[in-house]
Amino acid sequence: MKTIIKTILISSTVFTMNAQNKNPLLNEWKGNYGGVPAFNEYKISDFKPALETAMQEKLKEVEAIANNSKPATFQNTIAALEKVGKTLSRVYTVYGIYSSNMNSPEFEPIEAEMEPKLAAVSDKITQNTKLFQRIQAVHLSKEKSKLTKEQKRLVKVVYDNFVYAGAKLDAKTKTKVSALNQQLAGLYTKFSQNLLSEENNQYVELKTEADFEGLPEELRSAAKINAQDHKLSSLGAVANTRSSVEPFLTYSSNRTLREKVWRMFVNRGDNGNAQDNNAIITQILKLRADRAKLMGFASHAHWKLSNTMAKDPEHAMKLMLDIWKPAVAQVKVEVADMQKIVEEEKGEFKIQPWDYRYYAEKVRKAKYDLDQNEVKQYLQLDKLREGMFWVAGELFDLKFVQVNDVPVYQEDVTVYEVLNKSTNTLVGLWYFDPYARKGKRSGAWMNEYRTQERFNGVVPTIVSNNSNFIKGAPGEPVLISWDDASTLFHEFGHALHGLCSNVNYPTLAGTNVARDYVEFPSQILENWLSTLEVLKNYALHYKTGEPMPQALLDKIQKASHFNAGFNTVELISSALIDMKLHTEGTKTIDPDAFERTTLAELNMPSEIVMRHRTPQFGHIFSSDEYSAGYYSYLWADVICADAYEAFTEAKGPYDKEVAKRLLKYVFSSGNTTDQGVAYRSFRGRDAKVDALMRSKGFPMVK
């Protein structure tokens, strides 16, 4: 998942302040690497005054552009906007890190107060009539024909962004939209804080040695450490995060405990308590629908998709339903195989959601003689990180060197200088925050602390990857599952998208592309995890240091399509609920009832639940970013499956010529070109859904 830290429209991250401020958050980033955040100086009490000061500074900068008495030109309007908000961008970046990685009871009230104010500032900019008139004048001017290709693209993107945000609305409607945006900002914050509270404060205790039955040693160790962290007297505890729950559901042989852990996880935000998110979701959906209507759209989904590759909900729905049918059919096959094992074990129950992972692992062993726990012994987090660096070097000529002269916000965070191997020049910095902890939201994501640019001086980018792996005992390697390893490569793909950016203007840089395209660079990188070069050199046994044996490599390859039905149904069910919720218009929606009814209409397999149930669906209810956009993972999956075949049709995953095209047209070009055009430049044609069907082992769509 790619996360833009609390995005504010038309923001830049260059730094020019000269005087030192008493509030360290307001100071420019200093030091090497183009300057870095001074995490050793910041305090929570600094955030509110820093944000308020920086917001006012940005508004003044925008007013200066809007009130310029000279005719609007590219330089005095569009390029000038690329320079505003430098202070706010820096403050907002650190604020976003605290929100996602270091949240606390002291930070929550600040976040609740500031989010609506920040939304109001964004609206004041996009609703500034004089400013939009100048942007529109440049957009329609004859001067535009003399601009460079990238400058023309920037004019179009800025103009389209303002129109999308409501710049053409009348004054009365703008006021209504802004009020809705501020209300929504407060609700998003409350939703996120509720979810974080349930994840931080709920757990299932393991009270006897029998409760550990079936768990591999590293999970036993992690459960014991988690109990200590929560100051429990019990032997162990399963935390309410995906990285803790899914391994337990895979290996625990205690069916009663599996159900208890599963229910804890899938009921986050849905427990009828002070943290219940259902009423908040109802309000969010209503406000979004009202806003879309004011914007002139039939629904929130129609508004959100108007600036994507899909263009409208109908195109996205068609793709999802085309894949849904073969995925559901595959689930039936998978469940039949599992049920057969239950019967062989003399079990008298039908497979339930808390059984799926446990019995899928048994089927994997029976069908392919492949034990994921055996595979896991070769998947050391540190070694896989080295493998990712090596892949980045082979594909994009990058090298990563750990540095120790950069302040970090938490002791487990490490920082790497990223260099171009050929020229040994600085590309940027990569921060890595791998472990779960209290105050950190669950899941995995990428952030961009500073966007690459060079129109106003060369500014290197700063990106981060954030995960929630369970930290082991001191001195012990952290072993992760194959799925977690895939996620690790996925998020690193987002980071590389930011690091490889090579454009002039920050608005067009890195990951600032269409929502249903941004997951393409990340998802395609997952393919390199399973390449022999990575597995033989970086999948090393945590005790012996020996590489993964050929026999095990062969088994992994043969089982590559295993459980594809489950994974696809889990994903698409979430995407379908997201899209259907946001095409309902202004109806009042009961989230739980809507989820049950809609899934029944879709013939959702009873053995599976959505990857993200509605009350905990942070992608779509913690901000607007992925709302009516969760389908983008599937949309990007089609593109990345097709794109990876460009390598397999050539000389293989490390084909230099194909890699050069991938870098030129995808990873380095940002939003300087329409994404459909960019993909055709890389591939020579549009992506075909057939590639996705082949990658999953599904029958072809007719």
UniProtKB/TrEMBL annotation:
Protein name in UniProt: oligopeptidase A
Domain Peptidase M3A/M3B catalytic: 248-697
InterPro entries tied to this protein: M3A_DCP, MetalloPept_cat_dom_sf, Neurolysin/TOP_dom2, Neurolysin/TOP_N, OpdA_N, Pept_M3A_M3B, Pept_M3A_M3B_dom
Alphabetized UniProt keyword annotations: Hydrolase, Metal-binding, Metalloprotease, Protease, Zinc
Catalysed reactions, semicolon-separated: Hydrolysis of oligopeptides, with broad specificity. Gly or Ala commonly occur as P1 or P1' residues, but more distant residues are also important, as is shown by the fact that Z-Gly-Pro-Gly-|-Gly-Pro-Ala is cleaved, but not Z-(Gly)(5)
GO cellular component: cytosol
GO biological process: proteolysis
CDD domains, A to Z: M3A_DCP
